[in-house]
């Protein structure tokens, strides 16, 4: 590979060039040279964040050791062990069954630094919630923190590769010889994730200000979460990496960056990709065949420009198209594109619902009862809220629109039969155009009622 191309791919750090080669490399292809000397048994696929001085959101994928060198609680004092594993519901928007539960775990925080971990977790969540569609839908999320007490403050590989620290989750920079690749001991992470009641998404915050991160985007078979993002607590660009990673884990989006000048990635000749934001089709064909992001073609996108079919994406320079020039799936710090936003909302709706019955639905309500439901408020710039409707035996009772509670006496039931009272809440956002996704933004609860 030509040295100039290497720089384009890998940024300022020359050794990080391994990343590009690893796009095609299989398990075990790379040998970790820096600390820690990880036992290279089981490996897991992670995305490498883009270079610090560059715009690419990522540098492809590599396989890293599943387990690291975490020693865990072995050296902790009794008091430290008592604090280890504490779970806090930092942001509470309702029951875990109806909300997307984010679990944040810190690494490289000593017992004395746990207060700062909580402040760091709050700050990092604020960075995520500042990006649409997280902003609008932030009340669909619960955020949990799990305290992991480390023996040492800071993580391995910060400030340089000679720095070795004993931390609860074994976080380390210089993973697979790539300075900005911040890996963890996944079984250790899982042990802390399991302490929270539910996890849909996991963020591991390293007690560090150094740029880095990693996207573990394979869903957990045992714990149910969709992915782990690692990030440095004190680095804002690192937070953008974490948001990009949720584009994969929650949005099921493809990468939109590509590698000019690398022979293997000049031209894509494979089948149509499964991801909603990557296609072999031109805009004309997409419109004609009514497929992929055709509903958004020609619309102004929040990341700039109009939605079209821009050649380059999914690591390939030609043969694959992306919806916009510079969405967060290509460039850190940019918003999601219109199709990307829709995909993210679809991901939120996989875990969160728009109506939660507060009155139990498993017993018949009588005239002295009230049917109550909670509907999350949207933090929408236009003040839009989910549309709430009530139905008796399938017929809408228009006078109850927008209400979150109805007394059974208000139904004026005239016979002794059991009837069905249903409440629905629907988010009729213009950010979703696919009817299959729109359907998931409508949820309901039904009670049996009688005189
Ligand atoms: Zn990516």
UniProtKB/TrEMBL annotation:
InterPro entries for the chain: MetalloPept_cat_dom_sf, Peptidase_M64_IgA, TAT_signal
Domain of life: Bacteria
Keywords: Signal
Coiled-coil residue windows: none
Signal sequence bounds: 1-32
Pfam families: Peptidase_M64
Protein name per its UniProtKB record: M64 family metallopeptidase
Organism of derivation: Streptomyces goshikiensis
């Amino acid at each position: 590979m030509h040295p100039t191309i290497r720089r384009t791919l890998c940024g300022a750090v020359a050794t990080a060039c391994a990343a590009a080669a690893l796009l095609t490399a299989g398990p075990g292809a790379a040998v970790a040279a820096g600390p820690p000397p990880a036992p290279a048994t089981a490996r897991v696929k992670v995305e490498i964040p883009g270079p610090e001085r560059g715009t690419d959101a990522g540098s492809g994928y590599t396989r890293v050791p599943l387990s690291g060198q975490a020693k865990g609680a072995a050296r902790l004092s009794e008091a430290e062990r008592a604090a280890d594993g504490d779970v806090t519901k930092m942001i509470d928007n309702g029951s875990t069954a109806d909300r997307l539960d984010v679990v944040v775990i810190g690494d490289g925080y000593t017992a004395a630094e746990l207060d700062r971990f909580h402040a760091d977790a709050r700050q990092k969540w604020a960075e995520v919630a500042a990006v649409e569609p997280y902003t609008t839908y932030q009340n669909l999320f619960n955020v949990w923190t799990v305290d992991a007490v480390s023996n040492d403050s800071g993580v391995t590989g910060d400030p340089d590769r000679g720095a070795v620290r004993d931390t609860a989750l074994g976080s380390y920079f210089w993973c697979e010889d790539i300075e900005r690749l911040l890996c963890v001991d996944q079984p250790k992470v899982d042990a802390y994730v399991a302490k929270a009641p539910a996890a849909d998404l996991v963020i591991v915050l390293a007690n560090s200000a150094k740029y880095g991160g990693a996207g573990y985007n394979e869903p957990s078979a045992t714990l149910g979460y969709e992915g782990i993002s690692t990030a440095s607590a004190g680095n804002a660009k690192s937070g953008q990496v974490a948001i990009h990673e949720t584009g994969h884990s929650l949005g099921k989006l493809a990468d939109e960056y590509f590698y000019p000048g690398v022979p293997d990635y000049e031209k894509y000749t494979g089948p149509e990709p499964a991801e909603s934001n990557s296609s072999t089709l031109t805009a004309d064909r997409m419109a004609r065949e009514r497929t992929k992001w055709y509903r958004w073609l020609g619309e102004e996108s929040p990341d700039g420009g109009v939605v079209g079919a821009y050649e380059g994406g999914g690591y390939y320079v030609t043969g694959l198209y992306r919806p916009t020039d510079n969405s967060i799936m290509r460039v850190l710090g940019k918003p999601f594109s219109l199709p990307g936003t829709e995909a993210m909302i679809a991901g939120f709706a996989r875990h969160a619902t728009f109506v939660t019955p507060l009155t139990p639905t498993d017993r018949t309500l009588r005239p002295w009862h009230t049917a109550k439901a909670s509907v999350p408020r949207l933090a929408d710039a236009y003040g839009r809220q989910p549309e709430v409707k009530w139905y008796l035996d399938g017929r809408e009772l228009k006078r109850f629109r927008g209400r979150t509670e109805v007394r059974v006496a208000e139904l004026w039931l005239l016979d002794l039969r059991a009837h069905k009272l249903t409440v629905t809440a629907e988010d009729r956002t213009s950010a979703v155009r696919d009817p299959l996704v729109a359907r998931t933004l409508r949820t309901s609860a039904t009670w049996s009622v009688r005189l």
